[in-house]
């Protein structure tokens, strides 16, 4: 448990009506008094909560996109970065940034592999 979470738990364990001494509790748990006060009053969220709130796609939507990309790859149709951006636009119903695909790939590097495709042979291209 993080120190800030332990300090918040200590505040929550106080008896009803008992005055909260943020300075004392913050010093006891080694956290900033202002951060403890803001988090307890609900003015400030943790970084993890803030990051989740700012994401274009939630966790389940990102998982669905990963599975869709893997299905395309199994069929021999690996999507381009622009295609992934378009898929995200369809899911989120809002435009994602230029670097979103790179960050998405970084978040899911254990499940997705990014590679450059080799050019098609001129003879094969003419045959198509």
UniProtKB/TrEMBL annotation:
The keyword Aminoacyl-tRNA synthetase does not apply. Keywords: DNA-binding. Signal peptide: none annotated. The keyword Nucleotide-binding does not apply. Residues 49-114 form the HTH CENPB-type domain. SMART domains: CENPB. One of its GO terms (molecular function) is DNA binding. This is HTH CENPB-type domain-containing protein.
């Amino acid at each position: 448990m993080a120190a800030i979470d332990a300090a918040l738990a200590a505040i929550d364990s106080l008896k009803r009506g008992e005055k909260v001494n943020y300075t004392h509790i913050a010093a006891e748990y080694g956290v900033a008094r202002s951060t403890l006060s803001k988090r307890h009053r609900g003015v400030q969220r943790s970084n993890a909560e803030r990051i989740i709130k700012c994401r274009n796609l939630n966790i389940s939507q990102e998982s669905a996109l990963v599975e869709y990309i893997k299905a395309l790859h199994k069929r021999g149709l690996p999507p381009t970065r622009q295609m992934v951006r378009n898929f995200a636009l369809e899911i989120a119903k809002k435009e994602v940034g230029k670097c979103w695909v790179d960050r998405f790939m970084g978040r899911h590097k254990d499940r997705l592999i990014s590679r450059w495709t080799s050019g098609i042979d001129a003879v094969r291209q003419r045959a198509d």
